[in-house]
Amino acid sequence: MAKKTGGFTVRRGTAKRMLSVVGVVAVAGVMPLLTATTASADQIACTEYVGSHGYTVGPKVRAACSHGVIFTGIGKTANPKCLVGLANLNVASSVSGKACLRA
Hints:
Layout: E1 2-5, E2 8-11, H1 14-52, H2 59-65, E3 70-71, E4 76-77, H3 80-87, H4 93-100
Antiparallel strand pairs: 1-2, 3-4
Helix pairs in contact: 1-4, 2-3, 3-4
């Protein structure tokens, strides 16, 4: 049913639908921020582990540590991209393996 107010025709339920759309858009905008926080924290744990073993932490270490662990269903394994990235920087495999498990 339409109702005429101030020269505009407003249909019942229009405001409700608009609020629903705004809610969905707001949730879609916030979700990446919430999930990015965890990834950042894990990257920091990886880079701090590398740094604590005497290696200089710069953009290349952070890039390697940005490749998070792989969840296998029975546990987690280090991401090969993280391992290779740190190996290319001459980080010992004993350090890179444990660091990448923190990524």
